[in-house]
Automatic annotation (TrEMBL):
Protein source organism: Astyanax mexicanus (Blind cave fish)
Signal peptide from the UniProt entry: 1-25
Protein's name in the database: Olfactory receptor C family, w1
PROSITE patterns: G_PROTEIN_RECEP_F3_3 (PS00981), G_PROTEIN_RECEP_F3_4 (PS50259)
InterPro entries the UniProt entry points to: ANF_lig-bd_rcpt, GPCR_3, GPCR_3_9-Cys_dom, GPCR_3_9-Cys_sf, GPCR_3_C, GPCR_3_Ca_sens_rcpt-rel, GPCR_3_CS, GPCR_3_vmron_rcpt_2
G-protein coupled receptors family 3 profile domain: residues covered: 603-867
Record's subcellular location: Cell membrane
SUPFAM superfamilies: Periplasmic binding protein-like I
Record's keyword annotation contains NAD: no
GO-annotated molecular function: G protein-coupled receptor activity
Residue ranges of the TM segments: 603-626, 641-661, 673-697, 718-740, 760-785, 797-817, 829-854
Principal location listed in the UniProt entry: membrane
């Protein structure tokens, strides 16, 4: 049937195209085209405005025989809301006619069409508009004025079809409820304007609202029409851009079967998303809601588009939807409208068939009068209407003016058209010269295309303080109220409460304003519901996407050492700067632990105590030697060298203490030079002692004068020269490239090792090499003298001490290289202490033992009694 009707209308359209461009109304015999004017409510005026309203929701199926022309379209499902819109347009036009400052001396008329949500009927209505100049008026004269523009249609899909037809005749279409972003395409719809924001604003703003509330896992649905599909497409693109994910995407059929509804609800039930976003008309979403309630799926949070978020049909009939949130068109309290609606007279002139139908349905009565029918079929009631029934005694959508949103958009549309016509009228009055007047259109013989430039320039502030204008795409500003459905008092219908706003013309950070403390969610709580695929990753963790799943489904992986995440849901961890390290929680960078061998830690305290023990032991030996300095044992071994050796050993033990504590610019040079000088002094004394032993036995041979070169002055000179050479090396080291403190960041990632850099590695090797040469030379000489006669041959003890000394320092090298961090210093201290104790014990322990425990052996006779073996 639809195909047949559309084909018939297209043929009529072709006829109009052939006739209109070449002939005027005066040249063609006009006639009344009753088939196009069926169901029209009109009032004459100097300028006629057309209005499209879906006063009925669907058509009544007809039997088609294809043997005769199909009957007139009949509709059913009276739409109280749309009927209120049509009455509001009448009120606004009459208000303009009474306004002396707007279109003075011009009377606006109207022709209101009911298209029943049908494309065929919408096209029929448009043909009626464009053919107006070919019709006779109500008096029979062929002088019907042209209709310069149309206010409508509320449907995006129907607006697209109508606009394509009207493009051929350059008739502007000003919609009050068609929000599809596709209608912003000026190449396809050059003469389309609207006072409702484009869905491009709403879809993007809804995505931002979802992100603002922390919902990253949502279900998205759209109606099976241009409005639903386009809005859903824009919304999904914005959701993806914002890093959000959809659990499912579904299209709601226009006339769904029970099987389709069950399948859609099953998708919703199986989804883990707790938030549902729906771009749909109220009549499309209603079956889905009913099926969800039937299956007890009531734990979802709805986010509604403006097409149904203020629907009284939905909000009053389904209390389970409390907590629903969404974007609504701005509302206004229009003074005088409620009284006008209540003063409706069903049989007043001009006769309005829809008013009669509304009256009979509202009061369940019938008028026993033979009057023309509108688009709807009248039902017969047992009670007779008197016409005196009171609308104010009823409570319906028709006289509910608490949520005038679409009606307010209609107000903007009517007044925008009036201001455009007023500008056109002022062009004539203020033209001045005749040339200027010739450029201004004749408002009494106005052609549709002449209004378009004035519509584009419309810009005024209405009585409610809102600016009304059209941008370059014919769109209004993207301004919305954010509303929330609250449970009514005492179980009454849900209340629509404003909880925020969105204004696209403001700076980005000021566009979205939300009063979260006023929101009541679907479970009745004030806590924002959670809808995520994966819980948020806390600071210290990063998101690791699961293979084959959306980006919002991920695992939380701890950040690696040295990297942090200091906010939730970070995709990557951030590496800490070189001097910082991650704390145990991996959520902030802290200063790296400074590590060095300290006096305060256990290991450091043990080494320091050992060094002090060494100093005490050495001092004790010195005291013993001092008290027994006149005994043969002390005198026989050159007591002066012994005391000098004990002094150098004391310095060696004290030198170990300089390696403890924090390295500094004075501590680093001190520890290295002290080490070199003290050990050089110690080994010089040992070398001198060894030479004295060797020379003492060689001097016993007749004629040998060697002993005179190894008397005490020469011994002191030898010690001085050996030590002075080491001192010269140290001075050169300190003046050219002295040791200095450094921060070792490369050995450990999590801490800084404070250590002393050698400065000059070559000079450090010279210091060690010199000490090594002294030790080796001393060892060789002592080894050669180990079997010399004597009851107490000191050469044997020097040999053992040098053996220990060399063994310790040979083992020190690999231990030093392989020890990490502060343990390198510990190895060096251990080597110093071990070698020092080796010398102290090997050389002085046997002497002290004899002095203290075996004094009978501390005699010259005993020392000289031993023969050579």
């Amino acid at each position: 049937m639809q195909l047949l009707q559309v084909t018939t209308l297209l043929l009529m359209l072709l006829l109009l195209i052939l006739l209109c461009p070449e002939h005027s109304a005066s040249e063609i015999e006009c006639e009344r085209w009753a088939d196009l004017d069926f169901g029209v409510f009109q009032k004459e005026g100097q300028i006629i405005l057309a209005g499209y309203f879906p006063i009925h929701s669907q058509d009544v199926p007809q039997e088609l025989s294809f043997e005769s022309a199909p009957g007139k379209t009949r509709c059913k499902g009276f739409n109280l809301r749309a009927f209120r819109w049509s009455q509001a347009m009448i009120y606004f036009i009459e208000e303009i006619n009474r306004n002396p400052n707007l279109l003075p001396n011009i009377t606006l008329g109207y022709r209101l069409y009911d298209h029943c949500w049908l494309m065929a009927q919408s096209v029929r209505s448009s043909l009626s508009v464009v053919s107006q100049s070919l019709k006779r008026n109500s008096t029979g004269a062929c002088s019907s004025p042209p209709i310069p523009l149309i206010i409508g249609d509320p449907s995006s899909t129907l607006s697209m079809g109508i606009a394509r037809l009207l493009n051929l005749f350059k008739v502007p279409l000003v919609s009050y409820f068609a929000s599809c972003a596709c209608l912003s395409d000026k190449k396809k719809f050059p003469y389309f304007f609207r006072t409702i924001p484009s869905d491009a604003y709403q879809a993007s703003a809804l995505a931002r609202l979802v992100k603002h509330l922390g919902w990253t896992w949502i279900g998205a649905m759209g109606g099976d029409d241009a409005y639903g599909r386009t809005a859903l497409e824009i919304f999904l693109a914005e959701v993806t851009r914002l890093g959000l994910c959809t659990s499912f995407q579904a299209i709601i059929p226009k006339v769904p079967t029970q099987q389709q509804l069950e399948k859609l609800v099953k998708i919703i039930k199986d989804s883990t998303a707790r938030v549902l976003v729906a771009f749909s008309l109220e009549e499309d979403i209603q079956p889905v809601i009913e099926e969800m309630i039937r299956q007890n799926v009531t734990d979802r949070q709805w986010v509604a588009s403006e097409a149904w978020v203020t629907s009284t049909l939905i909000s009053s009939g389904y209390p389970n939807l409390s907590g629903t949130i969404g974007f609504a068109i701005r509302r206004a309290d229009i003074p005088g409208l409620k009284k006008f609606l209540q003063n409706l007279q069903p049989l007043a002139e001009p006769y309005n068939p829809s008013a009669r139908e509304f009256w009979e349905i509202q009061f369940q009565c019938s008028f026993n009068k033979d009057l023309p029918l509108g688009m709807g079929d009248l039902e017969h009631y047992n009670r007779t209407c008197t016409g005196q029934e009171r609308i104010e005694d009823t409570d319906t959508i028709y006289n509910d003016v608490s949520q005038l949103r679409v009606t307010y958009n209609l107000h903007k549309a009517v007044y925008a058209v009036a201001h455009a016509l007023h500008s056109l009228l002022m062009c004539q009055k203020e033209g001045g010269s005749s040339d200027k007047q010739q450029q201004c259109p004749d408002i009494y013989n106005l052609q549709p295309w002449q209004v378009i430039p004035y519509l584009k320039k419309v810009n005024f502030t209405n009585e409610f303080g809102d600016s009304v204008y059209f941008d370059e795409f014919g769109n209004a500003a993207g301004s919305y109220d954010i509303v929330n459905w609250h449970k009514g008092a005492e179980g009454g219908p849900l209340e629509i409460v404003k909880i925020g706003r969105f204004d696209s013309y403001l700076p980005t950070e000021q566009q979205l304003v939300l009063y979260e403390e006023n929101i009541v969610w679907h479970d009745g709580s004030k806590t924002v519901p959670v809808s995520v695929c994966s819980a948020s990753c806390l600071p210290g963790y990063r998101k690791a996407t699961r293979k084959g799943q959306p980006l919002c489904c991920y695992d939380c992986v701890p950040c690696a050492e040295g990297s942090i995440s200091n906010s939730i849901d970070q995709s990557e961890c951030t590496s800490c700067p070189e001097d910082l390290w991650s704390n145990p929680q991996r959520n902030s960078c802290v200063e790296k632990q400074i590590e060095f061998l300290s006096y305060t830690e256990g290991f450091g305290m043990a080494l320091a105590a050992t060094a002090i023990v060494g100093v005490v032991a050495t001092s004790s030996v010195a005291v013993i030697f001092l008290r027994h300095r006149d005994t043969p044992l002390v005198r026989a071994n050159n007591s002066e060298l012994s005391f000098l050796l004990l002094l150098s050993l004391t310095f060696c033990f004290l030198c170990a203490l300089t390696f403890l504590g924090q390295p500094s610019r004075w501590a680093c040079p001190l520890r290295r030079t002290a080490f070199g000088l003290t050990f050089a002094l110690c080994l010089s004394c040992l070398l001198s002692k060894t030479l004295v032993v060797l020379m003492a036995f060689r001097a016993t041979l007749p004629g040998d004068n060697t002993a005179r070169w190894f008397r005490p002055p020469q011994q002191r000179m030898g010690v001085f020269l050996c030590s002075a050479l080491q001192c010269a090396i140290c001075v050169a080291w300190l003046t050219t490239a002295p040791p200095y403190p450094v921060k070792n960041n490369w050995l450990y990632r999590d801490r800084i090792i404070l250590e002393c850099h050698l400065g000059s590695v070559a000079l450090f090797c010279c210091v060690l090499g010199y000490i090594g040469c002294l030790a080796v030379f001393c060892f060789i000489l002592a080894f050669l003298a180990r079997k010399l006669p004597g009851n107490f041959n000191e050469a044997k003890f020097i040999t053992f001490s040098m053996l220990i000394f060399c063994a310790v320092w040979i083992a020190y090298i690999p231990a030093y290289v392989s020890s990490p961090g502060k343990f390198t210093v510990a190895v060096e201290i251990f080597a110093i202490l071990a070698s020092s104790f080796g010398v102290l014990l090997c050389i002085f322990a046997p002497k002290c033992y004899i002095i203290i425990f075996m004094p009978e052996k501390n005699t010259k006779k005993y020392l000289m009694s031993q023969k050579v073996r």
